[in-house]
């Protein structure tokens, strides 16, 4: 099965192809009719209407979306009327004239749905009882196919029967189907992102929860005040990590949760774990995928510093880089053979590093392939993981219902966050 990110890219390409096909046919139609306006103006108008129709259809095949899209489609096709039905043939929207003729079209629509094939009929075969001239001369009914199934039909009513009009109806139906498929893929993408966050939680919790509770229980008798403090940090950590809403968060909130994690881990490791933050205040509100940094910090502690005699330094850096924020998690621990990173996309399945492949996939899916993780490492030379995060990205918004403030003093460059 193709990854959703790749599938979305393929569908986007199909969307562009469908758009260009409709646009090309429209240009030919304009030239054939010798329209008074220039072809360039007609193309600009066409692109504007296609853009509006596509944004409406991304909401799915609903009555509201159809009502918004059909006027633009009718103007694009320069026809008498455009209608959209659902998969049962029920009209969701009819824009234009001759809407009283739908009763004559029911059988035609049913055949188009059942056979998954376009149907073309002219006025003479409809049994129209209208006295005098009728605006309906030709009707094309084209199935809207989404994920291999008929989701509805596009009905194009024309005042003149022509092969070009039939082809325009077919290409427009393909354009509509592609927009509807993109909406389906977007939902799949969101569901996959939710599943990936759940997978990360499942991977983090067994390692951390067990050790955290052991650390807290060992302090109950010897230092109850410290135990209560750690228990509060642990409660806040789990509340944030296991929240069920929101796929994105701010860097400030992610760092707050990392602070809780490190507070508990330092109670366990003591002076073996030293932490340094180098955070530019201007990037604290950058939005990134939820729970994308903490697993990298956990990897640095568990796989880098815990295995090094005497421990070492963990450095978290966030810098302003124009339109991006550059974030890195670095340790001076045991490092690893770079060849082990060749299969980084499967690292979260092997357990070699907590969720690193998951995080890599999420960054690529949300922001694009150019935002994949960069890992620098060598035996006995530590490990550095670098993330690039764009300051602005479409549909990437933080969850505003869950927020928190840093409990330490405001972070600045070179400020040590946690001391032994």
How would you explain this protein's 3D organization?
With 420 residues, the protein is α+β, with helices and mostly antiparallel strands. It folds into two domains: 43-199, GAF domain (Beta-Lactamase, 2-Layer Sandwich), CATH 3.30.450.40; 246-390, Heat Shock Protein 90, CATH 3.30.565. The protein has helices at residues 4-33, 39-57, 63-77, 102-115, 163-219, 224-241, 251-269, 294-305, 347-350, 356-367, and strands at 81-86, 91-96, 119-122, 138-146, 149-158, 248-250, 273-279, 287-289, 312-321, 324-331, 374-377, 383-390, 415-418.
Task: Write the SSE topology.
Elements: H1 4-33, H2 39-57, H3 63-77, E1 81-86, E2 91-96, H4 102-115, E3 119-122, E4 138-146, E5 149-158, H5 163-219, H6 224-241, E6 248-250, H7 251-269, E7 273-279, E8 287-289, H8 294-305, E9 312-321, E10 324-331, H9 347-350, H10 356-367, E11 374-377, E12 383-390, E13 415-418
Parallel strand pairs: 7-9
Antiparallel strand pairs: 1-2, 1-5, 3-4, 4-5, 6-8, 7-13, 9-10, 10-12, 11-12
Task: Provide a quick synopsis of the model.
Keywords: Kinase, Membrane, Transferase, Transmembrane, Transmembrane helix. This protein has ten helices and 13 strands.
Largest sheet: 6 strands, mixed
How is the largest sheet built, in terms of strand order?
11-12-10-9-7-13
In helices, the fraction of residues equals 40-55%
What is the CATH topology classification name of the largest domain? Beta-Lactamase
CATH class of the largest domain: Alpha Beta
Shape: elongated
Helix and strand composition category: alpha+beta
CATH architecture of the largest domain: 2-Layer Sandwich
Tell me the domain tally.
2
């Amino acid at each position: 099965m193709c990854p959703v990110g790749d599938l979305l890219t393929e569908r986007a390409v199909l969307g562009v192809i469908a758009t260009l096909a409709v646009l090309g046919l429209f240009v030919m139609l304009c030239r054939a009719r010798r329209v008074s306006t220039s072809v360039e103006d007609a193309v600009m108008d066409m692109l504007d209407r296609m853009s509006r129709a596509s944004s409406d259809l991304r909401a799915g095949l609903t009555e509201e979306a159809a009502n918004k899209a059909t006027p633009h489609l009718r103007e694009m096709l320069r026809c008498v009327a455009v209608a959209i039905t659902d998969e049962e043939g029920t009209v969701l929207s009819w824009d234009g004239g001759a809407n009283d003729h739908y009763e004559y079209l029911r059988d035609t629509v049913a055949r188009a749905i059942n056979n998954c094939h376009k149907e073309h009929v002219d006025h003479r075969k409809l049994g129209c009882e209208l006295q005098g001239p009728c605006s309906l001369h030709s009707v094309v009914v084209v199935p809207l196919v989404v994920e291999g199934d008929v989701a509805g039909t596009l009905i194009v009513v024309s005042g003149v029967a022509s092969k070009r009009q039939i082809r325009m109806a077919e290409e427009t139906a393909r354009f509509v189907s592609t927009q509807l498929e993109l909406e389906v893929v977007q939902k799949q993408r969101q569901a996959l992102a939710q599943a990936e966050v759940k997978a990360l939680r499942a991977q983090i919790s067994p390692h951390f929860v067990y050790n955290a509770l052991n650390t807290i229980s060992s302090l109950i008798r010897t230092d109850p005040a410290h135990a209560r403090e750690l228990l509060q940090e642990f409660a806040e950590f789990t509340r944030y990590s296991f929240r069920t809403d929101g796929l994105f968060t701010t860097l400030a909130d992610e760092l707050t949760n990392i602070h809780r994690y490190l507070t508990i881990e330092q109670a366990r490791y003591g002076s073996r774990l030293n932490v340094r933050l180098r955070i530019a205040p201007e990037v604290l509100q950058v939005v990134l995928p939820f729970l994308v940094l903490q697993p990298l910090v956990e990897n640095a502690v568990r796989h880098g510093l815990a295995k090094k005699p005497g421990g070492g330094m963990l450095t978290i850096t966030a810098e302003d880089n124009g339109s991006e924020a550059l974030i890195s998690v670095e340790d001076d621990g045991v490092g690893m053979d770079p060849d082990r990173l060749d299969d980084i996309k499967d690292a979260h399945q092997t357990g070699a590093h907590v969720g690193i492949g998951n995080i890599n996939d999420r960054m690529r899916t949300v922001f694009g392939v150019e935002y994949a993780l960069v890992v620098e490492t060598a035996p006995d030379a530590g490990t550095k993981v670098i993330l690039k995060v764009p300051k602005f990205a479409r549909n990437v918004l933080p969850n505003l219902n869950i927020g928190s403030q840093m409990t330490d003093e405001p972070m600045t460059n070179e400020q040590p966050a946690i001391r032994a």
